[in-house]
User: Fold this.
Amino acid sequence: MILIISAARGGCYDERDFYHCPLRQRLPVIGIPLRSGEADAALDLQPLVDRCYQTGRYWQLSKRALLPPPLPKAEQDWLEKWVA
Assistant:
């Protein structure tokens, strides 16, 4: 499974950066476009997602059964090992 993130600079919506993020890997640091002529700001996504998981009570959901549709067998096995 892959998460795809896109970012576009204001006013340049036809030009985007795409980041492919396999869910089995650490989320990447992505460039957040600022104003024209300015360097992109770096956003490290993994600590943000980790913090949301820890403070948002998502850990309680990990003890419940997954909702349909079920994941493919290989993804389900990986997820169960990761949650444990």
In short: The mean pLDDT is 81. The CA atoms of residues 10 and 35 lie 7 Å apart. DSSP finds three helices and four strands in the chain.
